[in-house]
Amino acid sequence: MSGDDSGAGRDGPDDSDDSWVSDSVDGDTDASGTGGGQSSDAGGAERSTGASASGTREKGPGEKFCAECGAIINEKAEICPECGVRQPGMGSTGDDERLIAALLAIFLGIFGAHKFYMGKTGQGILYLCFSWTGIPWIIGLIEGLIYLTKSDEEFHQQYMQD
User: Fold this and answer.
1) pLDDT of 36-51, one tens digit each?
2) pLDDT digits (tens, 9 = 90+) for 103-162
3) Residue 108 neighbours by CB distance under 10 Å
4) Which residues contact 79 (CB under 8 A, 6 or more apart)?
5) Rounded to whole angstroms, what are the CA distances from 23 to 28, 45, 77, 112, 142?
6) Euclidean distance between CA atoms 5 and 8, whole angstroms
7) Which end is more exposed in the chain, N or C (fewer Cβ atoms within 10 Å of the end residue's Cβ)?
8) Nearest-angstrom CA–CA distance, 141 and 31
């Protein structure tokens, strides 16, 4: 036990995620076999709660793999805590923005409300200036239908201002 300080303090409940690291480190550095029992006990407990035979943790219920680094994260996580990359398909705001812009164009297109919403203030003012003619209402109706037919990615690339 005196030669194996790397396993000390690793069997607490807050360090259970990196116990597979201590298994590989302890297994490589422990030539005497005196500290091996302690680290294999911690590894054995970890393996029984979801680690595979190779020492890596398996995905459990309510978890998913990060799209960038492959780390196991909560399935509701929008950003990976390991690498900081936003997970694809997590934001429903794209669909919401497209739907809101379409509804604004259909119902308030005569005033250019959809243009103001999308950050195109100059075009919104132009719609306001010509709202007395009714032409912006027709254009807004057509634009609203176009917004509804676009995918979220196409809508963001073509219409939303960054």
Assistant:
1) 444 444 444 443 444 4
2) 999 999 999 999 999 999 999 999 999 999 999 999 999 999 999 999 888 888 888 755
3) 18
4) 85, 86, 87
5) 8, 11, 28, 63, 64
6) 5
7) C
8) 77
Q: Are 23 and 39 in contact (CB under 8 A)?
A: yes
User: Which one-letter DSSP state was computed for residue 110?
Assistant: G
Could you count the other beta carbons within 10 Å of the beta carbon of residue 59? 12
Task: Look up tokens 């939303």; give the residue.
Answer: 160
Tokens of 76: 């509701």
Closest CA to 117 of 95, 93, 101: 101
Residue the block writes with tokens 């302690």: 38
DSSP letter at 134 equals S
In sequence order, which residues have a C-beta less than 8 Å from that of residue 91 and are 6 or more positions away? Answer: 78
Q: What is the pTM (predicted TM-score) of this model?
A: 0.45
8-state DSSP, 65: E
